[in-house]
């Protein structure tokens, strides 16, 4: 996203308004001062730190989040306390608001949102499960798409991916291009499957399952479905996300050891394991989401320790809660992880420590001290140049 100043140069009786470096620099210093202070106090370890924004419903309600876009707009659903669920959208600049339900819908769930603000989800209409798309203030039901449907992802052009039952009642992955549904089918020996993510190329990922036993990671591209394997040929696992470069976040493992390893797959390098955090007690990991830079959000597991959540950013893996800014580690316990966008923001669920209260949180990375210093230097250079050129 690019920001620009579209305002024309204003003229007065004294001539054109000129750049005022002192005022600009002073304003910038005031704006950056809290950021610099938070950054300096937070950076006792390498890598990003995260500020915390609570996503509030405005009324007592349980907020469940699923996805966000690069603008920080978040979707999910809230419980009405009577067993009903209603899809919502939230942004850092607007209050949480419910999406208007499709005609006849009694419950709605939002699954994904793209950068145009289009939201994909599912709705209960009578005894049926319908897909819906919300755009420009209007929610449109797509019906059952021929059968009971579960929508999981929407790409930039509005294509949907998810699962629906075939004529034998087996759930199969599908893609909807806005006019028609294309079932991706199943590979031999598999009896179920789902697509959980789709990129702008129309490539989709998810999992395929046997009648009994664990699933296998599925990758669909250019009309072909394939299994993704681990570094040693492992076919047990599941794929959770795919980015615009075609990289896939997945986990792989072996049945005998019951182990799970988060990894990134691409056509050039194959499957490469994501390292565990240094000096941690965790043995296994699974991914949840990935952005276009290849940063991954996921879960950590170990024996006799509580599950936690990790982020793999710029080649470093760290436990997410350890990177919250001072005061937030003591306040919040992260209990679920949901998405990471191209700005590095992370969407999680958390529990207020010492209580039974839960909330959804948007974590925003804070620039490191040297980044803030570079901004100050750059503003100073601009101010000096402008003063030199000032008539």
UniProtKB/TrEMBL annotation:
Domain (Ice-binding protein C-terminal) ranges: 365-390
Pfam families for this protein: PEP-CTERM
InterPro entries, sorted: HAF_rpt, Ice-binding_C
Annotated signal sequence range: 1-42
UniProt entry keywords in alphabetical sequence: Signal
Name by which UniProt lists this protein: Ice-binding protein C-terminal domain-containing protein
